[in-house]
Amino acid sequence: MAWNEPGNNDKDPWKKKDDKNQGPPDLDDLLKDIGNKFGGIFGGKSSKGGSKKGASNVGIAIALIVGILVYAFSGFYTIKEAEKGIVLRFGQYDGTVEPGLRWKWTFAERIIPVDMQTTRDLPASGFMLTKDENVVRVEMQIQYRVVDARDYIFSVTNADDSLSQSLDSALRFVIGDSRMDDILTSGREKVRQDVWKELDDIIAPYNLGLIVVDVNFKDARPPEEVKDAFDDAISAQEDEVRFLREAEAYARGIEPRARGRVKRMEQEAIAYKQQTVLDAEGEVAKFNKLLPEYLAAPEVTRQRMYLSTMESVYANTSKVMVDVEGGNNMMYLPLDKMMQNQSSGQRTLPESQSRANQSINTQSTAPDLSGRADRFNEGRN
Q: Rounded distance, CA 118 to CA 116, Å?
């Protein structure tokens, strides 16, 4: 039988033991019962007639529950993947937390997220005095990132500002120890390296929790009032470097050719030497073969040598034939033109013909050989 069927039903959950009337419970009574229960928990006293007091206790309990839930959910927070969280408990450092979903005691703990992976930029610029007492405007930029979250937050008041002041100090120190020409031209890389090293030395004792990953030397120029003069000076220096490079290229190009000519001259000298030696040996061999013939028939050999020599001489000589027996009248001969043609022809003689002339000159020494042969015969007699 259901609890709400008519008749004698004692299964009604809303019916009290001392209540004979069957029906739904009174709302005031229900709230009063709940208030009495919570009032008993928090030290209150239940009262049958205090319905208003019970309702207020219920409201306080609900508000307390809601507050607890809000407090619990308000403690959840998220640390991003590139960050680390600094935990402060009542203002005191209590460690670091890794990326992910975390929970904290609200009002008791404070979380400071610190970006550990992003590379940050910091510029520096200004007019500075160089070693040679010139004024130059320098622009430089550094890139850095955080490596220690605790030192970054607690070592100094503001690590970024401290790094900026250290960069300005390092830059002015290096520029003040450099010459303007080096800063504007060939010494830029040295200035960049020196600034980087000086900056690391400055920030090391402060433990800023930062690391400098790069230093960029963006620009260096003189003041606008003297910019044109410095541009001319820089252009002249660039021309000097260009001329030096061209001279080096010319030297590299002409030196191999000179060495080649030297080598060729050496080879020609060696060939000329060998040719001269061989010619001399050939002449000696010819005279050695001619000597027995001369000893056997001196007059015939001498006559033959004379005729051979004269043949060679007249073969290379211009000849003019004049018939003087036909009469006493001398013919007009253009000797000047003939000699001029002869001289021009001699300039264009081939090398083989000049060598033939040299052989003729050599053969003209044949009488010396005959004299030597006569002395040889006298010695034998």
A: 6
Note whether 43 and 61 are within 8 A (CB).
Answer: no
Question: What average pLDDT does the segment 172-185 reach?
Answer: 87
Q: How is residue 104 written in tokens?
A: 């904290």
Q: What is the pTM of this model?
A: 0.48
pLDDT of residue 366: 42
Mapped to the 3 state alphabet, what secondary structure does the chain carry?
Answer: CCCCCCCCCCCCCCCCCCCCCCCCCCHHHHHHHHHHHHHHHCCCCCCCCCHHHHHHHHHHHHHHHHHHHHHHHHCEEEECCCEEEEEEECCEEEEEECCEEEECCCCCEEEEEEECCCCEEEEEEEEEECCCCCEEEEEEEEEEEECCHHHHHHCCCCHHHHHHHHHHHHHHHHHHCCCHHHHHCCCHHHHHHHHHHHHHHHHHHHCCCEEEEEEEEEEEECCHHHHHHHHHHHHHHHHHHHHHHHHHHHHHHHHHHHHHHHHHHHHHHHHHHHHHHHHHHHHHHHHHHHHHHHHHCHHHHHHHHHHHHHHHHHHCCCCCCCCCCCCCCCCCCCHHHHHHHHHHHHHCCCHHHHHHHHHHHHHCCHHHHHHHHHHHHHHHC
User: How would residue 356 be classed by pLDDT, with cut points 50, 70 and 90?
Assistant: very low
| pLDDT score of 33 more than 60 | yes
Assigned token pair, 209: 């929790």
Residue 195 has pLDDT above 90, yes or no: yes
261-295 tens-digit pLDDT = 999 999 999 999 999 999 999 888 888 888 888 78
Q: How many whole angstroms separate alpha carbon 86 and alpha carbon 113?
A: 6
Torsion-angle region of 91 (φ positive above 0: left; ψ -120 to 50: alpha; else: beta) = left
| Matching CATH number, 120-222, of 3.30.479.30, 3.30.70.100, 3.90.1200.10, 3.40.50.10190 | 3.30.479.30
Residue 171 class from Cβ within 10 Å (0-12 exposed, 13-18 middle, 19+ buried)?
buried
User: Does 160 or 352 have the greater pLDDT score?
Assistant: 160
Q: Is the dihedral of CA 4, 8, 9, 12 positive or negative?
A: positive
| Structure confidence by residue, pLDDT tens digits, 229-259 | 777 877 887 888 899 999 988 888 888 888 8
